[in-house]
Amino acid sequence: MLEDGRGRCLRCHVLQARDLAPRDISGTSDPFARVFWGSQSLETSTIKKTRFPHWDEVLELREMPGAPSPLRVELWDWDMVGKNDFLGMVEFSPKTLQQKPPNGWFRLLPFPRAEDDSGGSLGALRLKVRLTEDRVLPSPCYQPLVELLMESVLGPAEEDTASPLALLEEVTLGDCRQDLATKLVKLFLGRGLAARFLDCLTRREVARTVDPNTLFRSNSLASKSMEQFMKLVGMPYLHEVLKPVISRVFEEKKYMELDPSKMDLGRTRRISFKGTPSEEQMRETSLGLLTGYLGPIVDAIMGSVGRCPPAMRLAFKQLHRRVEEHFPQPEHQDVKYLAISGFLFLRFFAPAILTPKLFDLWDQHADPQTSRSLLLLAKAVQSIGNLGQQLGQGKELWMAPLHPFLLQSISRVRDFLDGLVDVDGDEGAAVPARVLVPPSAIVREGYLLKRKEEPAGLATRFAFKKRYVWLSGETLSFSKSPEWQTRHSIPVSHIRAVERVDEGAFQLPHVMQVVTQDGAGALHTTYLQCKNVNELNQWLSALRKASAPNPDKLAACHPGAFRSARWTCCLQAERSAAGCSRTHSAVTLGDWSDPLDPDAEAQTVYRQLLLGRDQLRLKLLEDSNMDTTLEADTGACPEVLARQRAAAARLLEVLADLDRAHEEFQQQERGKAALGPLGP
């Protein structure tokens, strides 16, 4: 949980439920979970016709400042007609959330009031809740730390080993690197320096690698950063390449198996009227189905050079150059290809095929049969990415029938990778990272309910009208239907805020507002209602991406509406009154709502450095007479050790300043608490 001026944010991972009460005539239910924390609530997706739903969804809720609130999770059976049926609930006190975050199975309980209890056995729900508290300071407090990190990637290559970034990597434990890598990528992406950052880490990783077979195989900061970078900037590309075939796999539900020990000969239709198919017939049928899916996947990947984001192509070009410089020997000519394919195929395409829901390629987890099919496809893509180095080896010799197809595909990989890194110069590094949406591309479209600012006398229920909405990098357009010729458009460059609207504003859920500014400087608000919370998050994400480069973003706005001569949120009587809630001007990079928030990212780096502060002091500062020992241990020359000591001293000075800033902030908070609500 991050705590700042906007309040606290809690992450609730709703995993699954079991033994739920049957509420439908079919003897099953259509369950969904609704999570409440403070004044906020979110819902999971609805799983149809099951008493054992598997959601595996993470919901993040924000609470306004004040006393901590309990967490309540309710399960409901969705009904198309009539009211939804209550299935049960669990509730956790603030003390439980802070001292022992829930993680496990919990028996569902009825509503506290007997008349709300639906009776009978209510089953159980499995949850995992993580509640961590941190305090994010104002931006100027983090500026010295951010500048040190930026200097690390802008300096000459010979200073890589003595930069603050190198010291940060050195004191970061393996289990913390994933989170740190995500925060660093986002921090440098927001500054337009992601390519420099990745190149800096790549140089260090390659320089300390002796055996090319181990290059980028560990969970180093370089490996994790490149992996997170691809996920942050490459999701639309991934969807364009993989989604058509992944959708086919889910929709067609074909049974495929090559492993004799796992074959179920009764699961497929009879090949002939002579009886159950033989193992050989099953293998041939499965091979045909697998290649029928793999062929379009491989063709889509090999033909995707022009669709790969320029930032990714530039990062791969730098990686290609660094590896080729370090391993120029003829026997290592494939290392430069393996370095790129190891990331693109093994850490991007293959995981997305294996778990499509985690990459938003499908809205539910796969059933066991489909999951096995996806596993076989992912294994094949991994083999292609490995350039066939391990074909015919290991325990999976049953994959041999697929080898001719794999070898044919592997022969195309090198040409594909050569085209991928054939990008002009380094001009891509200068492109502002926040221009995340191509101007002419349609980012999102679909039906929404739209309401413009109306005179106070207009009845609210008639104000929302169904409109088809298009969002591109240039305009937000509306019309009565997709085929309607007349469109009304708002220039994306005029957008100053994109925010949620409180349900109480119109007595409607899933409403957002788009605040724009015209040429005369006047602000206008357009309200849009979505069908559900998932659609709301996706539209918020897309609109914030498209409007990311806009200047003069609003620092605050009203989460309510101006009705009956006052704002429903703060009760101010002036329509032009200043906003009462801070805006979320951060860019959302992924459909899982991953924002660029430089202050929160810098705070994470600060916390990581705190964990390694004693190590920095002990290793580089406490005893300057240890130079000889350090030189013998690390092979570093005295000049490098001196630069490392200077970098560590600067880092420790910045940490001390941040310590003081946090202490001052805490004192201010204690002072406000002592004054109470009646204080000035």
Keywords:
680 residues, alpha+beta, Immunoglobulin-like, GTPase Activation - p120GAP, domain 1, PH-domain like, seven-stranded antiparallel beta sheet, four-stranded antiparallel beta sheet, 18 helices, 18% strand, globular
Describe the structure.
- The chain has 680 residues and is α+β, with helices and mostly antiparallel strands.
- Among the domains are: 8-133, Immunoglobulin-like (Sandwich); 203-266 and 278-421, GTPase Activation - p120GAP, domain 1, CATH 1.10.506; 442-548, PH-domain like.
- The chain has helices at residues 94-99, 139-154, 164-170, 177-190, 194-207, 221-233, 235-252, 279-302, 310-326, 335-354, 368-385, 403-420, 503-506, 533-546, 598-611, 613-621, 627-634, 638-675, and strands spanning 2-3, 8-18, 31-37, 40-43, 54-63, 71-77, 85-92, 103-107, 124-130, 134-135, 442-452, 465-472, 475-479, 488-491, 495-501, 511-517, 523-529, 556-557, 562-563, 566-567, 581-582.
- Strands 14-13-12-11-17-16-15 form a 7-stranded antiparallel beta sheet. Strands 5-2-9-8 form a 4-stranded antiparallel beta sheet, with no helix packed on it. Strands 4-3-6-7 form a 4-stranded antiparallel beta sheet.
- A hairpin with a 5-residue loop joins strand 16 and strand 17.
- Helix 8 packs across helix 11 (368-385), helix 10 (335-354) runs antiparallel to helix 11 and helix 16 packs antiparallel against helix 18 (638-675).
- The protein is globular, with a radius of gyration of 28 Å.
- The two termini are 29 Å apart.
